[in-house]
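Exam revision sheet. Question 4 asks you to relate a sequence to its structure. Input first:
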Amino acid sequence: MTCHEIMDKIYEGEPMPLLLRIQIGIHLFFCPDCAQEAERFEVTRDILKNDFFPPAPGIQKPVMLQIMKEAAGTAADEESGALDDFPAPVEGISFRSWVITGIIVLLSLSTSFLGLDFGRLAASEGMSFLLPIGITIGAALTCYGALFIGSHLKELSERFGLR
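Answer key, structure tokens:
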């Protein structure tokens, strides 16, 4: 095999049969150029796999400054009519609507048991039928709470003084 064919096999990175690995190893032992290129390739692949994105401390402030600059530029573009081709931004659900919807969901989930005849149902199915119902209600309330908190994190942190 030529140097070019050996390097192509190394670049593929796929599992190779034992005889091919031995042949490549022998070639790399006797060809210093291919050995050096294979070593560079391994180092590069390891860097890309493990250390490609170095930690970036303090990136929040420059990103937020850029967003504010772009928002200020957008306001100037709106006044000049430059953004007429773009759709208007969609407004989110208000804090009040989230709270009212949460109360309705909580009341509907907690009163759903009132329509069931628990005595007859417990006698025929056993009390174990409550476990999936409780898990479902808990999952629904947890998801709703997580969405509510995630979408209103800034307002909630300001309201409760969490900074």
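Marking note for examiners. The mean pLDDT is 77.
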